[in-house]
Structures are given as structure tokens and as C-alpha cells.
Design goal:
single chain, 352 residues, alpha/beta, DHBP synthase, Rossmann fold, 12 helices
Length: 352
């Protein structure tokens, strides 16, 4: 068991002494958890195979699941990637620092364990002040998946990290709640037509405005079928295995709004009769008795939903809730990423 230290860092003006301490741990092959604008990341020296191996062990993560590498400047692409297209450079200039990850051909500098044995690299520049300061001070690229046990909801607070990784990492930087609450958007730039591999904190509509046509990977449209194909090799996290799941059963109801809401009322009442605790996630208050223990009316404010989705997943785990019943939302803007997370977390998807 590792002696885990926790330090609070000012997210607006990170204290240099605390960042220096974290950077030294990274440089010596240790593990540091730090906030990004998306979720908390579990960081190690991306160029040190022994350090990267610790990430997989701490998270209980399959070694064929590639990691995202965080760099400090666009110019670093020349060192860690090759054959970077004009479109990729354009996206980097327009959206970095920010919640966009680009999949590119990797250079020989990057060890295979960091990329899950693939010849591609997933890379981004985060916009969070703490994460940027840490990368710059360490002076090395930092491999950092979400700081949770694999399959669990991603952490948006340091307290979430403590639940999963205390005693497994050297340092946890508490920088407060993350701004976006969902992971980065991932685009494969090694194909003739760029491919959306994971919807996330940057809406695909903005990316299309910048570079035009983008195709969508089949796993986004039908994750339940695709994630069972264990012989496939994917270029980014969050595609192959069941992800983002709370301990409670997630039931996602899709279809016309009125039918969906009636079905959710029916499911909540059935669970109450069975003495099971449930949480309903609804877009609108229809003044119906949902019979659930908690009803969360999220409206159509995608930013609020994305910031709170993993929060409520963690909440139900700490309050012995048996099921989350969620209403389908529109798959536009951040809604596409929210629906992706719900579908991948769901034990059951009901179409009415």
C-alpha cells in the first residue's frame, strides 16, 4: 500500500511549491492525481514504461486500453507524433488547450505500453491551470486516464478519487470540482475522413465547423453490441469495455417523450412496490408522481447535465440506491456525449 498524500491547490493561481512537489514525483516515476477541465486524471511520466505500468495496476485497467498523453505545447507534436495532417494542426490551434484529444501516428519516443500496443497516440493539451502548470514544471508528457478504478464513474472531485485510489497513488491534488464533468472528445486523425471515437467536452458541431466532414464510430451509435467484441483494438479509452458505471443498475429509456416518461413512471412504481430504491433522471417536471426516492429534473441545459452526471452516479453509490432510471435526451451538442455515457453505463436500454 502506498502512502497517499493529499494537497489542496488554488485552481486559479497554483502554488509553485506544491506544483514542484508533484512534478518531482512524476519525474521519479510516481503517480499523481490532478484535476483537468474535464475530469481528474491519474498521471505518470508517459515516456517511462515502469511508471505507466503503475497506472494500469492502480486502476485495474486492461493493458490494451490506450492512455491519453497530455503535453504542454503544440510544438510537442513534432516529438511524439508523426505525419500530422494540416487538419490536425488546425484543430490543435483552434481548440487547444481544451477538451479535445487527437489520435495521430506515434513516434518512436512513445513506449508501446502507453499506447496499448498500438502505433497511434492519443494526445491533448488540457486547459486547467493546475494540470498545465504540472506538465510544464515536470517538463515531460504526462499519461493520464481518469483517476478511478476502471469501469467506475469518472471523478469530478478529489473526494471521488479518494474513494477509488487512496493507498494506490503517491499524491492527490485537490483543485476543486472540475468544470466540464465529462471526458475529452476524441477524434481519429489517421483516417482519410476524421472519425469521432468518443464524444466529450467539445461538441462535434464545433469540430465540423472547423474541418468539415467527420464520420462517427459505430461504437457510439451502438455501444452495447460493439463493446462485447473483445478481439477488437481501439485507439482511445472508453470504447471497448463497459465504462462509467455506478454500483446501481442504470436503466435508460429511449423513444418518444410521452412514452418514455410513462415508462419511467411505471418502472419507478414497480421498484417502490418491490421495496427497491430508485433515482429518476428526467428532462422535464410533468407534475407526475414518479414514486422514486429522488427525481432529478435536468432540463435541456447540457452543460449542467454533463457537470453533474458522474456526481449523481457517485451519490447513488454512497446512498444505497438500487437503480437509476434515465430519460433519453437529444443527441446534439454535449447531449451526444451525455447519451454515450448513459448508454455505456446502462445495464438495460429500453426502447418504447
Amino acid at each position: 500500500m502506498v502512502l497517499t498524500r493529499v494537497t489542496r491547490v488554488n485552481s486559479n493561481n497554483p502554488e509553485p511549491c506544491k506544483i514542484d512537489m508533484a512534478a518531482r514525483i512524476i519525474s521519479k516515476g510516481g503517480l499523481v492525481v490532478f484535476p483537468t477541465e474535464t475530469v481528474y486524471g491519474l498521471g505518470a511520466n508517459a515516456l517511462d514504461p515502469s511508471a505507466v505500468k503503475k497506472i494500469f495496476l492502480a486502476k485495474r485497467r486492461p493493458v490494451d486500453n490506450p492512455l491519453i498523453i497530455h503535453i504542454q505545447h503544440i510544438d510537442d507534436l513534432q516529438t511524439f507524433a508523426k505525419n500530422v495532417s494540416r487538419e490536425a494542426h488546425k484543430l490543435a490551434r483552434e481548440f487547444w488547450p481544451g477538451p479535445l484529444t487527437l489520435v495521430l501516428e506515434k513516434s518512436q519516443r512513445v513506449p508501446e505500453i502507453t499506447t496499448g500496443g498500438l502505433d497511434t497516440i492519443a494526445v491533448r493539451i488540457p486547459s486547467n491551470n493546475i494540470s498545465l502548470s504540472l506538465i510544464r514544471t515536470a517538463g515531460i508528457p504526462i499519461a493520464a486516464p481518469s483517476a478511478n478504478v476502471s469501469g467506475r464513474p469518472s471523478p469530478t472531485r478529489a473526494s471521488h478519487v479518494l474513494e477509488d485510489l487512496y493507498g494506490k497513488v503517491d499524491l492527490i491534488i485537490d483543485g476543486g470540482r472540475t468544470r466540464i464533468g465529462l471526458e475529452s472528445t476524441v477524434i481519429d486523425m489517421t483516417s482519410t475522413v476524421p472519425i469521432l471515437l468518443r464524444p466529450g467536452g467539445l461538441p462535434i458541431e464545433r469540430i465540423k465547423e472547423a474541418i468539415g466532414k467527420i464520420s462517427i464510430h459505430p461504437s457510439i451509435l451502438n455501444p452495447k453490441n460493439d463493446c462485447l467484441q473483445s478481439n477488437k483494438h481501439y485507439k482511445t479509452p472508453g470504447m471497448k469495455y463497459r465504462h462509467y458505471s455506478p454500483k446501481a443498475d442504470v436503466i435508460l429509456v429511449e423513444g418518444p417523450k410521452l412514452r418514455v416518461r410513462n415508462k419511467i413512471i411505471e418502472l419507478a412504481r414497480r421498484m417502490k412496490n418491490e421495496q427497491s430504491k430508485s433515482v429518476c433522471i428526467m428532462t422535464k417536471n410533468m407534475n407526475n408522481n414518479y414514486s422514486a426516492d429522488i427525481v432529478w429534473f435536468v432540463g435541456n441545459d447540457f452543460e449542467t447535465i454533463s457537470r453533474n452526471l458522474f456526481e449523481i452516479f457517485r451519490y447513488v453509490d454512497n446512498h444505497n440506491i438500487d437503480a437509476i432510471i434515465a430519460e433519453e435526451i437529444d443527441s446534439v451538442d454535449l447531449g451526444l456525449a451525455i447519451m454515450d455515457r448513459l448508454r455505456r453505463a446502462a445495464k438495460e436500454i429500453i426502447r418504447v
